[in-house]
Amino acid sequence: MVGFGYDSHRFEEGKPLMIGGIKITDEFGCVSHSDGDTFIHALCDALLGAAGLGDIGEKFPDTDHIYEDYDSTLFLIEIVELIESHGFSIVNIDSTIVLEKPKLIEFKEQIRREISELCRIPMARVNVKAKTNEGMGFVGRLEGIAVYCICELKEKQ
Ligand code: MG
């Protein structure tokens, strides 16, 4: 089963930028009810999509005060447990982060490691790609970030 996820968030100053559970900078982060980890939100939707289990907004409503400034890695842990309880395991994850700056070259391996640990799969099964939007659109204007994520699940034997 294949699942796809997308997320985007607007930036604001004075909040850490979290991507895949890794703090990228303290200068600006994402406007969000939770910690705004756009990567993890897109990944959660990909996993839920592959399992036919809806989306992250249904599971963790932003009207629920318990999720204010919530650590998104906890969303991911819960969703991995959920899909496993439905008889699925993760084959691989691929992702594209669209961000004008800062450059993510030095962070990509850290993100892969963190996601592989949270999803309990080898690092080789987690791919992270990063690109700018060539100055175009909301990403190009440094207004926000977008992440696309795809995953494959298999039914456990
Ligand atoms: Mg989000």
Could you explain the architecture of this structure?
The chain is α+β, with helices and mostly antiparallel strands and 157 residues long. It has one domain (2-155): 2-C-methyl-D-erythritol 2,4-cyclodiphosphate synthase (60s Ribosomal Protein L30, Chain: A, 2-Layer Sandwich), CATH 3.30.1330. The chain contains five helices and seven strands; from the N terminus they run ββββαααβαβαβ. It has helices at 38-51, 56-59, 72-85, 108-119, 137-140, and strands at residues 2-13, 17-19, 22-25, 28-30, 88-98, 126-131, 144-155. The strands form two sheets. Strands 4-1-7-5-6 form a five-stranded mixed β-sheet. The two termini are 15 Å apart. The model has no long low-confidence stretch (mean pLDDT 96). The site of magnesium ion (MG) has 5 residues, from strand 1 and helix 1.
Largest sheet: 5 strands, mixed
Biggest β-sheet: strands ordered side by side in the sheet: 4-1-7-5-6
Uncertain runs: none
Q: What is the CATH architecture annotation? A: 2-Layer Sandwich
* CATH topology (fold) name: 60s Ribosomal Protein L30, Chain: A
List its traits:
157 residues, alpha+beta, 60s Ribosomal Protein L30, Chain: A, two-stranded antiparallel sheet, 5 helices, 7 strands
Draw up the topology in text.
Blueprint: E1 2-13, E2 17-19, E3 22-25, E4 28-30, H1 38-51, H2 56-59, H3 72-85, E5 88-98, H4 108-119, E6 126-131, H5 137-140, E7 144-155
Parallel strand pairs: 5-6
Antiparallel strand pairs: 1-4, 1-7, 2-3, 5-7
Helix pairs in contact: 1-3
